Amino acid sequence: MLRVEEACELLLHRAPPRRVERVPLEDALGLVLAEDVHAPEPLPAFARSGMDGYAVRSADTLGATREQPVVLRPVGVIPAGHPREAELAPGTAVAIMTGGAVPPGADAVIRLEEVRVTPEGVLVFRPVPPMENVAPVGEDVREGELILEAGHLIRPQEINLLAALGILEVPVFARPRVGILSTGDELVPAHQTPGPGQIRNSNSPGVAALVRAAGGVPIVLGVARDVTEVIAGMLREAAGCDLILTTGGVSVGRFDVVREALTILGAEQLFWRVSIKPGTPVCASVLEGRLVIGLSGNPAAAITDFDLLVRPLLDHLLGRRRLGLRAAEGVLDQPVLKTAGVTRYLRARAYNGPDGEIRLDTSMAQRAGVLSSMSHANAYAVVPAHAGPLPAGARVRALLLDDADVFVPPPRGDV
Ligand SMILES: Nc1nc2c(c(=O)[nH]1)N[C@H]1C(S)=C(S)[C@@H](COP(=O)(O)OP(=O)(O)OC[C@H]3O[C@@H](n4cnc5c(N)ncnc54)[C@H](O)[C@@H]3O)O[C@H]1N2
Ligand code: MOO
């Protein structure tokens, strides 16, 4: 059966081109720059005092000593935000606040704590070297400097830097728009009380949340009955999406008609069934150039399919460096008695053991039909197909969800 890595390859190979868009700075957090960004102006844009004190001409302070201080005549105050045009005359000092513009003529600032203000004037007890406590124009960023390269992730510190330079719109890789279509005659909207044999459609809000958390924009397309033509019609009309996710109807049952709907639409099937448990019957097709990924209907299986196959695709479209979940080595707390012909992705709680190693507690329910145990997991423990029973203490690959608050130790053998 197709391995996860092979399925990912096929999906990445047929991924839509990354869209680049300019977004307001306040919407750019977590996105990746699509182009280099250069500074349109220097930072700071004026020579700025780094301290509360007095701006002086350093030449005036030459020869000052504790016993023989230089006396400078005070000539007012420069608060931050209130620059002064007038040149500082020789023999004078002007009080200046942190962030204030150092006036023409002045070339240094002496801290308030180091001077004495007397009726005679401001006493300076040592020579103040040129540029002391002065941030010259462009000290932080030179005009025209390459500040952030294409591919750089925008975090809060980048938002601050861009705002400081007045860059209020940035070119980023756009959030993929992901259509979500749930299929199943048994589904009613989550706000309705299910009738006999019916269930609430939890996959639509659940998968929408997965998309949003992974950086995409979910577009909930609604629910389709298990009728080939109905599903085909809804897939055909799904406009404005970069890719489409369906849930349910991909197994072998009489009403599992998602693949049939794709076939009558003339879609090209990339794969059906991947070595993932839960979530084996996942399928992918290309419909009029657009990827349609059919996630398994069992909510826990849909989540696992998403984490393994859709997440790397969204990471790629968002221009991120790491595709998919963070991988590490973990040590099983419990034995795994049941292995399968497909790779099992066990729900696990990852935590650091006494020696800092990642331990994996897999004691929660693992059946595909159980959803609640997903809420106790912050990782997957990967049990390869045909691995045979594994004892407690066996080392396996762990895939860590974002909330897995564990220190990832370096691979064994490293210093
Ligand atoms: N004879 C076989 N039967 C099944 C096989 C098989 O190989 N042979 N595979 C099983 C496996 S494994 C899985 S996983 C499921 C997957 O089937 P589908 O992906 O086609 O999903 P459905 O049958 O439509 O639904 C499965 C399950 O999930 C519930 N569901 C569906 N949609 C939603 C939703 N939007 N919100 C909440 N719950 C949903 C649905 O009611 C079913 O209980 O097939 C096995 N069968
Ligand atoms: O895919 Mo089913 O959930 O593999 O058990």
Automatic annotation (TrEMBL):
One of its GO terms (cellular component) is cytosol. One of its GO terms (biological process) is Mo-molybdopterin cofactor biosynthetic process. Its EC number is 2.10.1.1. Catalyzes the insertion of molybdate into adenylated molybdopterin with the concomitant release of AMP. Belongs to the MoeA family. Residues 179-316 form the MoaB/Mog domain. This is Molybdopterin molybdenumtransferase. The keyword Transferase applies. InterPro entries: MoaB/Mog-like_dom_sf (IPR036425), MoaB/Mog_dom (IPR001453), MoeA-like (IPR038987), MoeA_C_domain_IV (IPR005111), MoeA_C_domain_IV_sf (IPR036688), MoeA_linker/N (IPR005110), MoeA_linker/N_sf (IPR036135). SUPFAM superfamilies: MoeA C-terminal domain-like, MoeA N-terminal region -like, Molybdenum cofactor biosynthesis proteins. Keywords: Magnesium, Metal-binding, Molybdenum, Molybdenum cofactor biosynthesis, Transferase. Pfam families: MoCF_biosynth, MoeA_C, MoeA_N. The keyword Magnesium applies. Pathway: Cofactor biosynthesis; molybdopterin biosynthesis. One of its GO terms (molecular function) is molybdopterin molybdotransferase activity. Its cofactor is Mg(2+). It comes from the Bacteria. It comes from Symbiobacterium thermophilum (strain DSM 24528 / JCM 14929 / IAM 14863 / T). It catalyses: adenylyl-molybdopterin + molybdate = Mo-molybdopterin + AMP + H(+).
